[in-house]
Amino acid sequence: MREGKDQKSQKTGIPRRRVRELMEMKYFKKFSFFLLLLLFLVGYTFLIISSETVDEEGGCSFSGCVGKTHPAMRKGTPMESKVVEEIWRVLEEDTDPKVLEKRSFAASMGEFIGEMKSSRPDATTFALNLKAMVSRIEGKARAAKIEGYLYRHVASSSIPKTLHCLSLTLAEEYSTNANARRDLPPPEISIALTDNSFYHFVLASDNVLAAAAVAASLVNSAARPSRSVLHVVTDKKAYAAMHAWFSLHPLEMVVEVKEMNQFEWFGKRKERVLEVMERDRKARVRFRGGPSAIWAASKGERPGDVAAKLQTLSPKYYSMMNHIRINLPEMFPSLKKVVFLDDDVIVQADLSRLWEIDLRGKVNGAVETCHGSDSFVMSKRLRNYLNFSHPLISSSFDPEECAWAYGMNIFDLEAWRKTNITRNYNLWVQKNVESGLSLWQLGTLPPALIAFHGHVHIIDHHWHMLGLGYQEKTSLKEAEKAAVIHYNGRAKPWLDIAFPHLRVLWTKHLNLSDTFLQACDIRAA
Predict the structure, then answer these.
(1) Measuring CA to CA, how many Å separate 410 from each of 43, 253, 348, 464, 480?
(2) Alpha carbon distance, N-terminus to C-terminus of the chain
(3) What domains sit in the chain, N to C, each tagged with a CATH number?
(4) Which of 202, 282, 420, 483 could share a disulfide with 349, CB 3.0–4.6 Å?
(5) What number is the average pLDDT over the span 455-470?
(6) What CA–CA distances, in Å, run from 513 to 215, 346, 482, 508, 518?
(7) pLDDT at 28
């Protein structure tokens, strides 16, 4: 049986070592360093050659010979200054790429200097050869960076074999073990599901391991976990595995696991919702042509633009799990207030205090993302998400208005039910699909920024720290201070491309000696 599970677990995934090497892009770093060093030395290289090379026939130094033959060198200024000036002139002016392609093929500085010594060119020829070499190195560096983005896209969009194994193993357990099919929650405490004296949390996920980590961190950080209720929402494919995990790993809080089809709301609107989602998916594929088309068309584009195109193809942007939060008032008609958690967060503080925050009549309590020490993650305004060249956007919103974050939000469902937020969200999603994704390209946050406009109460930034999946420079010390840390970005903590020093904050909430985790070779690193 174990052998069969291992075979199943090999279905997906790409080599761990290859992913890590590509994510670090070691060869790109080498190219970048070499390029910077080359540019730093450019003003001196020709002088070195000049001083060491002697014209055998004329008996003059090379720079002296250049002075006799090159008009630019016949003025009364020092020879060294004229040589450097000529080199920079050639480097700065536009040159036909075809001309550069025929120039020096030196692969290193040593080869280049040797080639120049043997051929003894004038300053102009020297500069053209240098420019050709720099151009080739830039091209290699750019190609390496784009390749890294492509592999990062593949690595972040694929299901690791360990997670695939865990889902299959738990699904099998669900079908063969009655304990894995026990009612969640047990009938005697099911009344808590609609009791507003409890603290209600909603987690939407089809990733069992991610959901397990979020749930464990919520319990570990709660002052009174027994007064908390976790509503886990998943899809049909992951339901058996998700139910089995929480049945076999009881927590101190109340846990409910439901599949989307079990909600009355979904039964009423299923066809309409799925139709919009499918149209959105097709529009994205047609819009970008898929990863292979993006790669083929990447010549001449900036690596950052290529990365943005690849990001639009991420499966999460047309996953139902990412859209259901806009329907929370209908999904939980008896509840007054809930905290919604993404499955790539970890809770580090007692979140029951969120219920004490006065939202002042607003619907959504969220942190702003335009202020903070992290200039990349915390510099987001509406212009970063919406296309302000489109009249529908520019006529309705201010591009400099601060954006806010999904991932950990407290929602006042009573206030929400008095608004048209959900209806407006669906209308704008429809408009974006009909416009060929010309209003925005990425995910569910842009339509939420529109639909919740005027309905957001900003909460203190310590409640929600973002960016742990974006950049390695995030400080572990700072991350430990946040109430909730969010691994938004491609480097999810369950992937091999996760940042090791930040991953520990996630893995510490998993019992790695668990039988199921060990069977699927799920480890801390």
Answers:
(1) 59, 19, 16, 11, 21
(2) 26
(3) 22-154 (no CATH), 159-519 (3.90.550.10)
(4) 483
(5) 95
(6) 18, 20, 27, 12, 6
(7) 46
